[in-house]
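Section handout, structural biology tutorial.
Before the tutorial, make sure you can parse a SMILES string by hand: atoms, branches in parentheses, ring closures as digits. In the record below the ligand is adenosine-5'-diphosphate, and the chain has 346 residues. In the tutorial you will relate the predicted structure tokens back to the input. Do not try to memorize them.
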Amino acid sequence: MKKLGVIFGGMSTENDVSLVSANSILKNLDKSKYEIYPIYIDKNGKWYKYLDDFNKTTYDGKVENKEIIHNIIEYLKNLDIIFPVLHGLYGEDGTIQGLFELLKIPYVGCKVLASSIGMDKAYAKIIFEKAGLKQCKYQYIRKYKENEYIYIDKNFEETRYDIATITKKISQTQKFPMFVKPSNSGSSVGISKVNNIEELKQGIINASKYDVKILIEEGIIGKEVECAVLGNEDVIASTVGQILSGNEFYTYDAKYLSQNSKTLIPADLSKEKIEEIRKLAIKAFKAIDGKGLSRVDFFVEEGTDEVYINEINTLPGFTSISMYPKLFENMGMNYQELLDRIIATV
Ligand SMILES: Nc1ncnc2c1ncn2[C@@H]1O[C@H](COP(=O)(O)OP(=O)(O)O)[C@@H](O)[C@H]1O
Ligand SMILES: [Mg+2]
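Predicted structure of the complex:
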């Protein structure tokens, strides 16, 4: 039997989300195929053997029984395959993937490069542009020091401005409402929708708590849709699902807390649009040099019906009600079978 390490938790703002994803995965993995080694990383970066019963039916997001792993490298070297069920920084961004590469342990999902591109929204945009994928207008800046920011133009020329000047410059180039995002973020943490210069300033200040690189995008009005992809060279794409957000946009609360957020599978789109989006999802995955799995998110603009790529998530949410498994379930692949197929891509 293969020794499968499942790593979850992690040092990102999505530690708790990862726990819920991992709990579903641990519960559903075929125990006759894999000898499972669940590993929990806490928010401070301490690694533990996870000793709770992961078959319990309800899950409260807490880790009760755990035992510290003193020699992480030795512990990992004993494993045949690793499934990192981590979201966000230090899990989805290529850092932990780099550790697995060094140790020569096969692992599920994207390698170092694809993981870091997928995590960094500004760089993902540069690659998507090169691949000819349509996306919203955007600009990005870096925080330099208090009240001083660096504006990076399309030719990578840099200019320093104070916040008043930089917000004015941004608002002359694209229209409100805008979305301000830490470039490296997930679960909508640090993201704000802004309607005027004052809110733009506040949005930038807020985003800069999470990352020095800040992306400012023109807002798109339309449907928010997602497509799951699976495979390496022969990638398959799922059907397309739609987000019906309970809040003004798909915020952290709307994603995980609101009872009013719903998903619709398949999305309320024509067959042709769904086919177009499936092809674009595979194109985006290939463009970042993706491996294993990803969920690719888009907007379909109201009025024009144009498809805009929003982002790619290389380790998407994986609870039993998450979009990724639900999209494949809709195509007749149950959760356990999906896990086997993902692990088989390694
Ligand atoms: N350019 C945009 N136009 C309209 N809505 C947006 C735009 N960018 C982000 N949003 C909204 O904000 C949410 C979070 O943004 P996203 O880039 O997906 O970040 P995260 O990686 O945190 O999921 C999206 O799901 C969407 O509801
Ligand atoms: Mg998103």
